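SEQUENCE AND FOLD
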Amino acid sequence: MNILVDLLYNLSLLVSLSIISGFILRRKGKGWSNSILQGILMGSTAVIGMIFPLTVSPGLIFDGRSVILSLSGLFFGPLASAISGLMALVFRVYQGGTGVIMGTFVIIMSAAVGTIFNLRNKRKKTGITSKLLFQMGLIVHVAMILLMFTLPNEIAGHILRLIALPVLLTYPITTVLIGRIIAEAIEHLRIEAELKTSEEKYRLLTENASDVISVFNVTKNKFTYFSPSIFYLRGITEAEALNERLEEALTPESFEEFRDAIARDIIDIKENSNAPKCYINEIQQPCKNGEIIWVEVSTRYRYNSIGDIEAVCVSRNITQRKRAEENLVYLSYRDYLTGLYNRRFFEEELKRLDTVRNLPMTIVMADINGLKLINDSFGHAKGDELLKKAAEKIKKGCRVDDIIARLGGDEFVILLPRTDSIAAEQVIKRIKELSLKEQVETIDISISFGYETKCIEEENIQEILKKAEDHMYRHKLYESSSMRNKTIDLIMNTLFEKSNREMAHSKRVSEICEAIAIKMNFDTENINQVRTAGLMHDIGKMGIDEKILNKSQRLNDDEWKEIKRHPEVGYRIINSVNEFSELANSILEHHERWDGKGYPKRLKGEEISIQARIIAVSDAYDAMTSERPYRKGLSEEEAIAEIRKNAGSQFDPDIAKIFIEKVLER
């Protein structure tokens, strides 16, 4: 009985040392340095146990070194096992006595068994269980009992009978107990390491994320956490953000919306608390510098450890996105050129405002006179400038609440809610007065208007729109004609300003055309038409670069291609004016040839209008006899010879003959 008590005393000492070892273990890392440290620690524990052993006889001692050394090999591997075994071996040899040989073999065997179990577990990747610890403890201490036969024969049997049963009863169980202490220490160390890693990842995410992570305690109505990125979002520190009330962190409008959203969300999660719902809101927040930014807040709710409801929020700056969205909405309802509303917006507003409370409602249609002519003559850039100026004057002449839209091309519409016809006429009058004072360079702004008023609910708004458009077109018939005549004069003057040579040439061609027409016995009206066509035959050169018109050298191929466009351009300009439309074909065809080799349509013979054939002779004669910077003009005789030579190929032979014999009298 005393032997069992002494063994338990020794083993309890080892258990206490193992607990201390576990605390030390929790504070160390991994690797070979840790194996060395654990080897020294386990070796020291074994040595301390050997200092307070159960002494059976002088030199024959029993202690818990076998337990400690086997566990050292099992938990900490071969290196720790070798160090702890070596320390125990040296101390046992130092102690000496009859049991030194047995003690030496027990030390070596215990360390080896523990190491073998370690390698087996690593290979099979199995955990260390109480069953495994008991199995190892039993194997080690059965082996220890067998090693008692290395004692001298006279004492071996006695020792075996005295110690074998207490060892088998206590040592395997102590192996399990100390093994569990070490295993729990190692497991605790692993959990601590994982927690530390997780905490570092969390800190890395929260402290370096561009999005702001925050926690708002809904129950206490206060913020409890902000990630450092709040500074980059709003220019305030975490401490400043935590001290803000919710209403201070948002604009007044957003506070009302967000507060109501939280209330709805709380009801939702209380009804279904297990649903992992994420709620997204777009709010506005003030920054420290006074700027207001748009923020998208993604929110999840949870119950904290004391039962309060918390909102875990992730916020990101979406100001640029909101501006892009606003710009997209603006563009979808605006005319890109004038900045006025477009047809889509007008049609939606027309439906929305078509109510009794907006009666009487007047619709005004407006159309820019002569826009096509200006585009063809001066280019679309000039036409666009005219549109923008006209839109500016229309807007300026209207009231703040009036809706002005560009329907497309040269058409505008004005929607005047709660406006009768008298008030609408005043609006139109203001716009006309403003337009008369404005020009785009030398081009007047001329706008034709028409309006119609809806006075009773039963009237169809689309019919009102159609009537307003009809009235506008009736006004346009005479207003646009006047404008086009002015524009033609402007075009001719502009062309002559671009090139003095063109002005002189056109006037001479006009005079020659008139003379030929008289000799051909045309009536007065046709003579005037030919004379005017001769004057305007090169009006299409309005669209030709001034550098080409005034070039002092011969034209290259590309420049000739550009020059050869002028009959078609001239045709489009003249054809847009009713008063001159009869002249359009003669201007288009004045570079056609009698033999069909001219341009642009390659007409032949009498397919070409007689006015064009007269212009062709007149134009060619004046061109041949006029001085050019790159050549001298031909004499009258030389020019006549050229006309005679090309009569029947380039020129109408009859007209060529009349010109030479009756006009020039040669």
Notes: Residues 499-663 form a domain with the Hypothetical protein af1432 fold (CATH 1.10.3210.10).
